[in-house]
């Protein structure tokens, strides 16, 4: 029994210590703008970087059905058609990860934007020819999120 307890303690400690590392895979920012303004800023920032918004998904209704109280939640999907077409033609395994997306939700009088870090895909797709694409997506996503955060 002692060995089992030691093993459980080691596993628990390992999971606890590794939890912050998983948060490093996110790009996140808070803005002092309320949700409607932040949503407009996000859409504008995405467009100004040459991307087309492909879909706006409302999440708050699904959360409400599960009795989760929420403010406004949206997932904004976006991409560059030619870029996605080119990348997925050569790497069809990337299809489930595209188009790119940013989640935006209200928290009181502020809004928070969150996205999966595009460079996290390098762990699953180590082909060196994809690195510049992931870096390009990273730079654009950071810039988009910064625009939303810094706008007033």
Count of runs of 4 or more consecutive helical residues: 5
Helix content: 40-55%
- N-to-C SSE string, H for helix and E for strand: HEHEHEHEEH
**Amino-to-carboxy terminus distance:** 59 Å
Q: Report on the biggest sheet.
A: 5 strands, antiparallel
Helix/strand-derived class? alpha+beta
Q: What shape does the CA trace take?
A: globular
The CATH topology is given as TATA-Binding Protein
Can you describe what's shown?
A hairpin with a 2-residue loop joins strand 4 and strand 5. Helix 2 runs antiparallel to helix 5. The chain has 152 residues and is an alpha+beta fold. It contains 5 helices and 5 strands. The N terminus is likely disordered. It has a 5-stranded antiparallel beta sheet. The chain has a single domain, classed as TT1751-like domain (TATA-Binding Protein, 2-Layer Sandwich), CATH 3.30.310.
Q: What would the keywords be for this entry?
A:
152 residues; alpha+beta; TATA-Binding Protein; 5-stranded antiparallel β-sheet; 5 strands; globular; disordered N terminus
Tell me the layout of helices and strands:
Blueprint: H1 2-23, E1 26-31, H2 35-48, E2 52-58, H3 60-65, E3 73-79, H4 81-90, E4 100-107, E5 110-116, H5 131-150
Helix pairs in contact: 2-5
């Amino acid at each position: 029994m002692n060995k089992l307890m030691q093993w459980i303690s080691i596993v628990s400690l390992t999971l606890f210590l590794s939890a912050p590392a998983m948060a490093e895979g996110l790009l996140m920012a808070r803005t002092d703008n309320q949700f409607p303004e932040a949503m407009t800023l996000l859409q504008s920032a995405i467009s100004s970087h040459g991307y087309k918004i492909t879909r706006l998904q409302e999440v708050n209704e699904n959360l409400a059905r599960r009795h989760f109280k929420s403010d406004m939640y949206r997932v904004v999907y976006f991409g560059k058609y030619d870029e996605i077409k080119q990348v997925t033609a050569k790497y069809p395994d990337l299809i489930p990860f595209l188009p790119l997306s940013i989640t935006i939700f209200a928290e009181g009088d502020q809004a928070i934007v969150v996205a999966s870090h595009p460079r996290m895909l390098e762990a699953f797709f180590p082909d060196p020819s994809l690195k510049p694409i992931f870096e390009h997506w990273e730079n654009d996503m950071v810039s988009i999120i910064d625009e939303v955060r810094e706008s007033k």
